[in-house]
Amino acid sequence: MSFPPAPERAKSAQIGSAIRAALVWNIGTMAFAQIALAGIFLLLAARLDPLTFGTFALAAVVTDVVYTLGASSAVDAVVQRQDYSRRTLSTITWAMLALCSVATLVFFAIANAYATAVKATQVAPILEVLSLTMIMLPFVVGPMAIMRQRMDFKGLALLGMISSFAGSLAALATAYTPLLEWSLVVQRFVTTGAMILLATLRTRSTPAFTFHVATARNWFAAAWRIFAGQGVASATPRAVDLMMGFFFGVVALG
């Protein structure tokens, strides 16, 4: 009976350990979300009316195309190409910043028309401010890709929990001020900012002022394919939210 060489056995053991860690920390993250975050949400729901939730949902249904799918596909494209050099990660950061800036300008331009189309004029200012969070996203791509490379599932889970908790607390605090209708927008800003700060500190990865056109082109080609695939898979719930708000109103959606 033959056995695999020692380096292969060590690598298999490392992968197995990483998978077990990912499972444990994913369960931990879900438990945290069900208990701590759900408790804060109930307190928040007592302060905010359905109109506020519905308004935010109608704004987020369009911005999340970039906010969620954009960030996810950007990180996946880095992991797929397995190039974690500082030049590559810096190039991707600046390329994504340019794309997110254009997307933000587009959302600013269409905010009033979109709000009119969904028959909720109050959506326009929320959409304009919420779209600014997309400019923050490029700065989390590099650190998150590095954590994926290191199979730092514990770090990803902990950072996700801490940033979500910080965002929820910020939303709850805002709900007890005259700006309570902005609570969910504040939550998005604080959650994103906390994740960027914590991931950067954990990986000690910051972008350099460098740009390589070919690298940006190759990354964009991979990211676009992933973005399109994920977009098709996640389009249905967003379409349901949009139709719910359009046909039954913002309060019903909330």
Account of the protein in words:
By secondary structure, the protein is mainly α. It has helices at residues 6-47, 50-81, 86-117, 123-130, 138-149, 153-174, 183-203, 213-248, 250-253. The longest helix has 42 residues, at 6-47. It starts with 5 loop residues before the first helix and ends with a helix.
| Strand runs, count | 0
Number of helices: 9
Q: What structural class do helix, strand and pairing data support?
A: mainly alpha
Query: What is the helix/strand order?
Result: HHHHHHHHH
Average of the residue pLDDT scores: 82
List the helices and strands and how they pair.
Blueprint (H helix, E strand, L loop, with lengths): L5 H42 L2 H32 L4 H32 L5 H8 L7 H12 L3 H22 L8 H21 L9 H36 L1 H4 L1
Helix pairs in contact: 1-6, 2-3, 2-4, 2-5, 2-8, 3-4, 3-5, 3-8, 5-7, 6-7
